[in-house]
Amino acid sequence: MQETIIGQYNPIAVMFFLLFVISTLGITYWAAKRTRTTKDFYAAGRSVTGFQNGLALAGDYMSAASFLGIAGLVSTKGYDGLIYSVGWLVGWPIIMFLISEPLRNLGKYTFADVVAYRLNQRPIRAAAAAGSLVVVLTYLIAQMVGAGTLIKLMFGIPFEVAVLVVGTLMISYVLFGGMIATTWVQIIKAGLLLGGATILVLMTLYHFGFSYGELFKQAEALYTNKFLEPGGLVTSPLDAFSLGLALMFGTAGLPHILMRFYTVPDARAARKSVFYATGFIGYFYILTVTIGFGAAVIVGQKLIMSIDKGGNMAGPLLAEALGGNLFLGFLAAVAFATILAVVSGLTLAGASAFSHDLFVGVIRRGVAAEKEEVKVAKIATVGLGITAMLLGILFKGQNVAFLVGLTFAIAASANFPALAMSIMWKKFTTKGAVASIYTGLTVATVLLILSPTVWVDIVHKNEKAAWDIKEKVEKINKDLKIAAPGQTLTLEDEAANRKLEKDAATEIIAADIAVKGKIDTLKKGLKTAPEGVILSPADADNNKQVNDQIDQMLVTESPRIYREKVEAVTSVSPKPQPIFPLKNPGIFSMGAAFLVGILFSLMSREKEAEAKYEDEKIRSCIGIGAED
Amino acid sequence: MSSKSSKKTTEEILNDSDFQSLSSQKNTISIILTILELVLYFGFIGLIAFNKPFLAQKFSGSITIGIPIAVCTIFFSWVLTGIYIFWANNKYDVLVKKVREKIGG
Questions:
Q1: Of A132, A155, A321, B52, whose CB neighbour count within 10 A is largest?
Q2: Whether pLDDT at B2 is above 50
């Protein structure tokens, strides 16, 4: 197996990272002097160009989860990983066709400005702020936990320290530099990430003589043709459509993305920025997929999964294999920067929802001095940052993948329908909007909790584990050879049985962390020899002793563990079943939000809002009266 | 905003033939392109859900047909945004300028 230094303290990575931190803090200092008004703090003075905003949007959107996660998914699952990368992109055209221009023309700082444009300000702002804050917080927790884990893997520093470093830097950028600093952090990060991934792909292709045919030929040779075909990730069509809807329309409902459209001078620049962003993001996902397949062939699944089961280290491992320590260090620093940029954008969006929508819109009924609003936004930034750090540490070691699904489901259900209907439907009313937002929020959250991802995998984690072991053991036991009456088993059958019993025992041991830990420690004592070299007699002897010890432990411990940890659970609790069958509730929660919004609007006519629709239409179409 | 003179302007703009054509063109283009994007993506999802063997066919050498299809879904999504930009820059902006000049905005 190839050697790797991943997981150890890596001075080159730290050096690159410090370079990034120093330059971005320098920018923050520069930005701080230019951040005085609310327009500066929330919208970078609307001075960002379409191209810059395109890069910044890409920077906001391309998270470490997509960079490391998709490459990992492709390297371990092959084609199925590719399906995800497509899903992450397709929301962008929708943003362009339906949202970007009206958003820029109608709003000021948050998407709630647009929903509230012709409706009652206070209830709408309260509801929209709730939708924004829930999306921001769930996404922040997912990013923080991911950040802690990934940084621990790449830099060898403890989880808590990593979360604190990320949290402190993110608060500094937003607090002192507002949207100006955040935008530049996004732009630099997007440049680094696109550049780093491009170099990695060029090196990968060089390895295969710049032939994708060769890359896939070797991938097929190693992992069979199944690796290049859609497999088990998408089983139920309804599930696939539901997840697809959530990804597509969730993108168009993410507050930190929507907020970026206020940083450009006009609707023309807003639409331009989506064109650039879509190009950058699409290009990036195609790179990521190449990195995933390249890692599977050059690094190998065995090593990738031995470092991280989910495959998250596929990209960094490939960088190490092709470009050595120096390139690994660079890429690790880029991943760190990626996490920082995304959490900064989220924090700023959350702070805006708090200050602009909740404080000014709801508590102060729309009247507040600019200075005071900026002050509240800054307090909210610190509050959100600290909350995110605490929750990140609290959720350490938890499976938080479901939070990303939840974020997109809520964004697609609470934020998108209200926004779309307020732009496109004359008869949309305050009651309809409020009911739609809260329905989307509640239905998405409740259904996700009742879904297999949370109800089975998290709420009934122990029962699921016990039942999984029981089923595996029963399946193994079925293969046991039984002697016919009056006869004894052949030696071969005996040996086969002993091997099956050992397999079953190994499954059972997994239920007891203490015993499993002991066995894993023992296994580390096994000696290996380089390929083609025979183990020395002393090493062979050592290995035999270790293996005997492990076998002994399996035999003596497994019946007790099976009784206490498996049967004790399966005899009292039935096999856990999800109450809601789909993994992502998107199709139902989004449908419910639209339906409730339409029903409540039809039941409550709002003449004033209808009258204002004409004004809205003119402003939305030709930008007269748009904030400058 | 709600003074009498601007109210009059609102109605004038609404009845203006250039504004009407601008507004209806924009709606049509947005809806057509949105539908195309939906067809593109959910067509891809539909193939995965209902016709896996099709995607598993060999395209060239070891490469299955599913791989270029996925890459094309990404690429054509971007092309659709390009089409919108092309239309907006060449038609929409011209009409907007015309209407704005008329009302002196």
A1: A132
A2: no
CA atoms of A106 and A612, how far apart (whole Å): 12
Rounded to a whole number of angstroms, the CA Rg of chain B reads 22
Query: Beta partners for B64?
Result: B58
Q: Residue A41 pLDDT > 80, yes or no?
A: yes
> What integer is the mean pLDDT of B44-62?
89
Q: Is it the case that residue B5 has pLDDT exceeding 60?
A: no
**If you count residue pairs, one on A and one on B, with CB atoms under 8 Å apart, how many are there?**
150
The string of pLDDT tens digits covering residues A47-89 is: 999 999 999 999 999 988 778 888 998 999 899 888 888 989 9
* Residue that is written with structure tokens 């690429």 in the block: B75
String of DSSP letters for A24-36 = HHHHHHHHHHH--
State which amino acid sits at residue A305.
Answer: M
H or E stretch covering A490: none
Would you say residue B22 lies in a domain?
no
Q: Is A561 helix (H, G, I), strand (E, B) or coil?
A: helix
Strand (E) or helix (H) holding A542: helix A537-561
CA of A620 to nearest chain B CA: how many angstroms apart?
10
Q: Which residues 62-91 of B have a C-beta within 8 angstroms of A?
A: 62-64, 66-67, 70-71, 73-75, 77-78, 80-82, 84-85, 88-89
Average pLDDT over chain A, rounded to an integer: 90
> What is residue A535's three-state secondary structure?
coil
Residue A9 pLDDT greater than 80, yes or no: no
Residues of A in contact with B81 (CB under 8 A): 92-93, 96, 274-275, 278-279
- Whether residue B19 is contained in a domain is answered as no
CA distance B99 to B86: 20
User: Which letter does DSSP use for residue A351 in this model?
Assistant: H
Q: Is residue B9 part of a domain?
A: no
- Per-residue pLDDT at A546: 87
The Cα A303–Cα A500 span in angstroms is 26
Residue B84 lies in a domain: yes
ipTM: 0.91
Query: Which residues make Cβ contacts (< 8 Å) with residue A435, sequence separation at least 6?
Result: A596, A597, A599, A600
Q: How far is B34 from chain A (nearest CA, A)?
A: 6
For residues A540-565, average pLDDT: 85
CATH number for A11-400: choose from 1.20.1730.10, 1.10.3720.10, 3.20.20.140, 1.10.1760.20: 1.20.1730.10
- List the structure tokens of A534: 């025979």
Q: Where are the domains of chain A?
A: 11-400, 461-572
Instruction: Count the neighbouring beta carbons within 10 Å of the beta carbon of residue A18.
Output: 11
Residues of chain B neighbouring A289 (CB-CB closer than 8 A) = 70-71
DSSP-assigned beta bridge partners for residue B63: B60
Pick from A484, A524, A474: nearest CA to A504: A474
Q: What pLDDT is attached to residue A444?
A: 94
Express as a percent the part of chain A with pLDDT over 90: 52
Residue A298 vs residues A315, A372, A446, A564: alpha-carbon distances, Å: 11, 56, 43, 44
CA-nearest of A74, A329, A412, A342 to A215 is A74
The domain total for chain B is: 1
pLDDT value at residue A3:
67
> Amino acid letter at A325?
N
Domain limits at B38? 31-103
Task: Out of A79, A83, A237, name the one closest to residue B50 (CB).
Answer: A237
Residue B58, SS3?
Answer: strand
